[in-house]
Design a protein that fits this description.
This protein is an alpha/beta fold and about 400 residues long. The chain contains 15 helices and 12 strands. Helix 3 runs parallel beside helix 10 and helix 4 packs across helix 9. The termini are far apart. Bound molecules: pyridoxal-5'-phosphate.
């Protein structure tokens, strides 16, 4: 970049691109598994690491590199490594950072597969996880053990939009010689930059807002050159969950409109949240952009907007919630989010279906809860589609 202090949108559109001899305007897709060398000596120098350059697309690929450099710049990190999925990013982080006997402290409301990774698979390798209340710093303090290495959180939480004080959790992690990893899927760097608040590493599901149009599965890890550029790069190039060049191209084009989309998702979600809040068939709305939200002030400080996910409890439990979902004609009934297409889901019986009833109710996942990931269709159409089942 040759700009003095380029703004977020300029970085999202311009950074990372290196034009080839063909002078293409848009970024090219390098659909190649391997790269050739001018001679045997160059091959030897590339393999030994004496000469930088491409060898094989499991290690590096020029299209994937553009996505990585662009996302690193947007998060304010030194390095980024792209992965085949968001879960591959989280798994690689754990493999790179942890060893047998280590301990993780994690917020309780995290993505379902992340919980399964921690509880079912990492435990096999002698790594234990304690879960804490995202919003209660004393709960985090109490959970720390001498073997704790990693703090992990998602904010805003899914589906109840609770907000973690990233700075406070980062300080606590560092006092205990631990690293803080933040899953920044819901806000993206367009709305929240956890590294600037003290987090050490960011994980992403590029499947969600980074692509933003529901076309690919992908992920990324962002952080320091030492941790991500060297250690995690080594893990990923060796174990293999690299991002394909085509998926990287889709995601890097997605980044170009990220800021615009996140602003629009947030505006639409706030309108829906206001509408739901005054509706007599709705018991409670969970959205950090509402002044009634207990952490509205913290969310306003830490985020530049509130994101696209709104959850609410309808009166009448599961029957009414399912009726509402089944009455929609535009919204997609699917658990995915981060798409221009609005989606609607019943967390109790889908995303949290395997969680025990006690834990669900403890964490506020009730039978009447509905989650909407507000897309970019005309907002009045989204609201009337949801009204159909509320009024009926
Ligand atoms: C979807 C999601 C993931 C996992 O990402 P995949 O790309 O599906 O592997 C992780 N964290 C959060 C918050 C997610 O929403």
């Amino acid at each position: 970049m040759t700009y003095d202090t380029p703004g977020f949108e300029t970085v999202a559109i311009r950074s990372g691109q290196r034009r080839t001899n063909e002078f293409e305007h848009s970024e090219p897709i390098f659909a190649t598994s391997s790269f050739v060398f001018e001679n045997a000596a160059q091959a030897a120098a590339r393999f030994s690491g004496d000469e930088p350059g491409n060898i094989y697309s499991r290690f590096t690929n020029p299209t994937t590199n553009i996505f990585e450099q662009r996302l690193a710049a947007l998060e304010g990190g030194e390095a980024c490594v792209a992965t085949a999925s968001g879960m591959a990013a989280i798994m690689s982080l754990c493999v790179g950072l942890l060893k047998s006997g280590d301990h993780i402290v994690s917020s309780r409301s995290i993505f379902g597969s992340t919980t399964t990774l921690f509880d079912k698979y990492l435990t096999r390798f002698g790594i234990d996880t304690s879960y804490v209340d995202l919003t209660d710093i004393n709960d985090w303090k109490r959970a720390v053990r001498p073997t704790t290495q990693l703090f992990f959180l998602e904010t805003p939480s899914n589906p109840l939009a609770e907000i973690a004080d990233i700075r406070a959790v980062a300080d606590l992690a560092h006092e205990n010689n631990c690293l803080l990893a933040v899953d920044n899927c819901f806000c993206t760097p367009a709305l929240q930059q956890p590294l600037a608040l003290g987090a050490d590493v960011i994980v992403h599901s590029a499947t969600k807002y980074l692509d933003g149009q529901g076309r690919i599965v992908g992920g990324a890890v962002v952080g320091s050159q030492e941790l991500v550029g060297e250690e995690l790069f080594g893990v990923i190039r060796t174990t293999g969950p690299s991002m394909s060049p085509f998926n990287a191209w889709v995601a890097l084009k997605g980044l170009e409109t990220l800021s615009l989309r996140m602003t629009a998702h947030s505006q639409q979600a706030l309108k829906l949240a206001h509408f739901l809040e005054q509706h007599t068939a709705v018991e409670k709305v969970f959205y950090a952009g509402l002044e009634s939200h207990p952490q509205y002030e913290l969310a306003k400080q830490q985020q530049s907007d509130f994101g696209g996910v709104v959850s609410f409890v309808v009166r009448g439990g599961r029957e009414k919630a399912w009726h509402l979902i089944d009455s929609t004609q535009i919204l997609s009934i699917t658990a995915n989010l981060g798409d221009v297409k609005s989606t609607i889901t019943h967390p109790f019986t889908t995303t949290h279906g395997k969680v025990s009833e006690t834990v669900k109710l403890q964490s506020g996942i009730t039978e009447g809860l509905v989650r909407v990931a507000v897309g970019l269709e005309y907002i009045d159409d989204i609201i009337s589609d949801i009204s159909r089942g509320l009024d009926g």
